[in-house]
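Write out this protein's structure.
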Amino acid sequence: MNEPLLSICIPTYNRAVFLKRLCESIFTQTDENVLGKLEVCISDNASTDSTGVIVKEFSSRYPGNITYKINDKNYGAVYNLFQVLKTAKGEYLLCIGDDDIFIDGAISYLTKLIEKIKNDEEIKLILTKFDSRQGNKIVFRGFDSLQSDKIYFNKQIEDFFIKDKFWCNGFAGAQAFHRDLIKDYFNNLTSQDNHNQWPHLSILLHSLRNLKKIFVTKPIIYQTGDGLFWLRANWILVLFHKIIVLDNAITKNEIKIGMAAKICSGILFSNSMLRLIVSAKIEDADKFLMVVKEVSAYRSSNRHMRLRINIFKLLLSTIKFIPLKVLEAVYLFYLKVSGIDDFRAKVNIPTVTLRDKREGMSTS
């Protein structure tokens, strides 16, 4: 096939059942026209399950559309994501976790969209809306405040990242990058980037100053993976690690200090973060103490970020000393009077431990 318009990049490890479901969500909505423009690029971190069998099955049904690379051992999620991006040949590259799926019609929509905008050299980034789904219920909508099928320009882009949910970009499928952005990122790769738990977020920040336009899609992905069921303590770290990515971007002069500081404040001092902190201690006090310890150990070299991080540390320490029963009573009362629907407070949802984090978020 000629160079594809779109490469769907899937880093995977020992998740054959989920990978099969994702591939079915891709290929069941393609026709000959779409297949001629599509590459599914899979990087396997030396899986020991039936991942290879699943890939072989789809490769035989769709010859020429699947690129499959197997690492000689499990090098961790960051290496695996880098490998799949380096292997892909598409004009636009979209990474997706192997436990998520595409909404019906998304593949045709994306290929037609790229054909429409590919001659506009100022559009190098597509923000892809997504819905987080628990069963048949949508529990979160990514980039919901942004209009679908719309181009955002210069100052609008900066305002969006400051005012809206910047951390939504931590979802791997939240953006499709033009291959020029990926190439430039790898040409300027640092040792710190090789240890970054959020490489797709780093690519975004690395590209931020050169973005003149971004296109925002309609919802195209269902986030269905176990990320919804992590311990809330894990999620505090997930969000805080995005602050570290911002801090590194300041060091590399990729983002303005004022902008990074505003994004930092928006993440750390929101109502949702306060609810997360309180509910994290209620859910598992021991894991919460581990989070407090890890956050407390971090030191920022930038004074603007350091001030905000220190205030956040103080907030965590204050919650740490409030009795558990008092916190639980206040939290449940708050949910009731505010009308907030916390589905995890109503049912016993299984969680995974810090050691068993999904491959897409782990460095080991």
